[in-house]
């Protein structure tokens, strides 16, 4: 039986919500999903990884075996800290980026998004300042807003966050009597800009934060997806005390399993486990066992190389199409890994206002304003090349360029 959609009524609970819910708004990207998901629309909007290279047959046999042989553990509650074996394996993953860590200091979370939420919950009171690259990851901005933290953006260039700009922002906040609690940064293959923080800037940024007594939150879901197969030294490898590191299996294995982690100094880690307990008791046991078995029995690094090749081919298709079709005056970043290209369009075009016209022309993107807490970024847009085929990417960029041309001639 289909139940009819209930008629709209004004929310009878509107006077009851906690004040902090005022900062909770649907992300522009989520609002787009329903239209962008239509098959005739080429979606360059979302950041869904391409899972086609996963060994589904082997995985399903493995999941069946976990349940058959270890089901009473796999389907049971477990520790809020995460399974010990998986925490050890996570330390091996992080070693690829120069991190030396003890498994006790790893807390497994429900995706790194939950790590972000818990870290913000632990550190931010209403009105506290979080400094972040401008632009920054929408999901992080959502968490900061939910805890009523104020975001101050620091400019980036093609080498990532600009250290002098960071220093100036921290000095200004200190002069204004503001309490800056966190620097939130995505050093590798940044979302949304695609840019990677230059090696020479890493130690400087860590040093500036130490000098201003600001905790660094390093969010690194894309670090193993560099197209040349190289990794970059994690900020955490430069400072094990003042950096909290967030990791994820979403982009290197499977986002649907929702397994991520936080690596934190001991005292913070203890508080994180308590926060984890109150949020969800424990991360899903079965999913942790699936990830753990995958890491133990698969050539997972070889599989990541396959993903990387796939993404590189798509990146190349996107860059070639941008070069070929985009009108003069448009510029874009050239990512060395990850999922995203960040485009700047000519003066006079507002990418948010243009979006419905783009969707009508059967192409979707993420408009720039969603990536800034102050909703600036009207001349920018993010294109994702991770999911569509190279042919669809070319067609999508061709359609987008036509929309931009007509926008410019309006
Ligand atoms: C920079 C960044 N951080 C965190 C996340 C969330 O990842 P997860 O699936 O691990 O929650 C994403 C997802 O797109 C991301 O781009």
TrEMBL record:
Gene Ontology MF terms: pyridoxal phosphate binding; transaminase activity
GO biological process, alphabetically ordered: alpha-amino acid metabolic process
Pfam families for the chain: Aminotran_1_2
InterPro entries: Aminotransferase_I/II_large, Class-I_PLP-dep_aminotransf, PyrdxlP-dep_Trfase, PyrdxlP-dep_Trfase_major, PyrdxlP-dep_Trfase_small
tRNA-binding is among the record's keywords: no
Keywords: Aminotransferase, Pyridoxal phosphate, Transferase
SUPFAM superfamilies: PLP-dependent transferases
Origin superkingdom: Bacteria
Record-linked Gene3D superfamilies: Aspartate Aminotransferase, domain 1 (3.90.1150.10), Type I PLP-dependent aspartate aminotransferase-like (Major domain) (3.40.640.10)
Domain Aminotransferase class I/classII large, residue spans: 60-400
Cofactor: pyridoxal 5'-phosphate
Record note on quaternary structure: Homodimer.
Family as reported in the entry's similarity comment: Belongs to the class-I pyridoxal-phosphate-dependent aminotransferase family.
Protein's recorded name: PLP-dependent aminotransferase family protein
Organism: Streptomyces beijiangensis
